[in-house]
Amino acid sequence: MFFSRSSLSLSASWAASQCSSASRRSASSRLGRAGTPLRLMAQHHATGQIPLAAAHAASGLHLLLGAIAASQDAVTQGNVDTLAAQAEQLEAAPEALETAIGNTDILLNMLKSVGL
Predict the structure, then answer these.
(1) Residue 84 in contact with residue 65, Cβ under 8 Å?
(2) pTM of the predicted model, to two decimals?
(3) What is the rounded average pLDDT of the residues 54-74?
(4) Rounded-to-integer distance, Cα 99 and Cα 107, Å
């Protein structure tokens, strides 16, 4: 299914409006716990690219969800300092997600090299 950038933004803002800040923090916490086994698996060289990519993706999503929760509260309270403090997470999230994509690409290239 194809989503334009504007429909994606609308969907994200609608979803954020439907969730309380507590549920956003809870989602971030659950994702952090779910990503822990992936991060533990990814520490072992023999694990391979898929768990490594999944661990990076989980980390990136965790960073984004944490920034969303903090930003939503800060916006409602007019807290500019908290908003500014989210910059580090917002810069780290794309790096983690790009690393996840890179690890996925490595595996896909390996499969292509053997004709799969």
Answers:
(1) no
(2) 0.63
(3) 88
(4) 13
